[in-house]
Amino acid sequence: MPLVTGREILERAYREGYAVAAFNVITLEVLQGVVDAAEAERAPVFLQFNPGNLRHVELHYAAALAQAAAAQASVPVVLHLDHGESFAQAVVCLRAGFTSLMYDGTAAPFEENVAVTRAIREVAAAVGVPVEGELGRIAGREEEIDVAPEAAELTDPEAAREYVERTGVDWLAVAVGNVHGQTARVARLDLERLRRIRGAVSVPLVLHGASGIPDDQVRAAIGLGVCKFNMATQLNQGYLRAMVGAAEAAPQDLRSLLMAARRAVKAAAQERIRLFGASGRA
Ligand code: 13P
Ligand code: ZN
User: Fold this and answer.
1) Considering the entire predicted model, what is its pTM?
2) Is residue 1 part of a domain?
3) What is the CATH number of the domain that holds 197?
4) What is the CA radius of gyration of the chain?
5) Measured in angstroms, how far is the CA atom of residue 140 from the centroid of ligand 1?
6) What residues does ligand 1 touch, defined as CB less than 6 Å away?
7) Is the pLDDT of residue 103 over 90?
8) Residue 282: inside a domain, yes or no?
9) Number of domains making up the chain
10) 60, 160, 249, 273: which is deepest, by most CB within 10 A?
11) Are 188 and 149 in contact (CB under 8 A)?
12) From 82, 104, 156, 170, the catalytic residue
């Protein structure tokens, strides 16, 4: 089927109380492994590109690969811009066929974040594409975004209410103790804060840095309105470990390395899709 918009996928997840996985794509084998997992689990899935990965893969390949994947897939696939940097980038991605956008204005002052998010939301809404906004600052590292623990800022529920009202965002990424780039599941979420944010806004919530969130906290967060989890590090680790293992066994066989990487991505993605409750929701 053609790419679907993020809106229909997350609206249903919000109504029915589960979450959808959004995986960052760096190579063809990551994309294939993620779609393999979604097919095996009969789950909807987000393929997402952050600006660094978009520069690496290149916009025309990213769009064409995701479109080709969706066309072959029997499960709904969304193509999402992760941590979008500017209004211009959002428009470029819309034109290329992205079916979901995020704008990350968390490094800018609140008023600027509101103004740019609102402008993006207006153009995107004109063509039926939803927009994810973010408030607060998530600690840790994702590509060029590198936030030291002391610079991190948890999302304020009242500011979240104002941000959602003024921007019209379709869903909101929050900082509640989630950390980008953790290689073990050691995050400690402030679930009380998440509960207060949930009381203040009526849109689905998003947690970035899902690689580091322990299973029990994932379940608790879903119960508090989280409908989308962003994952990158855990997939990348699995990919790399599989490649290194395969390279030791057959150092000159590039295809067997890439096949091992694809299988590792599939296994890691399946495990999280199941935990999020998205299996069988295609
Ligand atoms: P992790 O790499 O920590 O899983 O975070 C991914 C992410 O937040 C993508 O936006
Ligand atoms: Zn992120």
Assistant:
1) 0.97
2) no
3) 3.20.20.70
4) 18
5) 10
6) 24, 82-83, 142, 180-182, 208-212, 230-234
7) yes
8) no
9) 1
10) 273
11) no
12) 82
Token digits of residue 234: 């855990």
Spacing, Cα 253 to ligand 2 middle (Å): 33
Would residue 2 count as lying in a domain? Answer: no
Task: Confirm whether 82 is a catalytic residue.
Answer: yes
pLDDT surpassing 90 at residue 253: yes
What confidence tier does 70 reach under pLDDT thresholds 50, 70, 90?
very high
Q: What is the Cα–Cα distance from 83 to 85, expressed in whole angstroms?
A: 6
Task: Please give the residue range of the domain that contains residue 40.
Answer: 7-275
Ligand with smallest separation from the Cα of 23: 1
The amino acid at residue 198 is: R
Examine residue 280 and state whether it is found in any structural domain, yes or no: no
Cα 81 to middle of ligand 2, angstroms: 11
* SS3 of the chain: CCCCCHHHHHHHHHHHCCCEEEEECCCHHHHHHHHHHHHHHCCCEEEEECHHHHHHHCHHHHHHHHHHHHHHCCCCEEEEEEEECCHHHHHHHHHHCCCEEEECCCCCCHHHHHHHHHHHHHHHHHCCCCEEEEECECEEEECCEEECHHHCECCCHHHHHHHHHHHCCCEEEECCCCEECCCCCCCCCCHHHHHHHHHHCCCCEEECCHHHCCHHHHHHHHHCCEEEEEECHHHHHHHHHHHHHHHHHCCCCHHHHHHHHHHHHHHHHHHHHHHCCCCCCC
pLDDT tens digits, one per residue of 26-43: 999 999 999 999 999 999
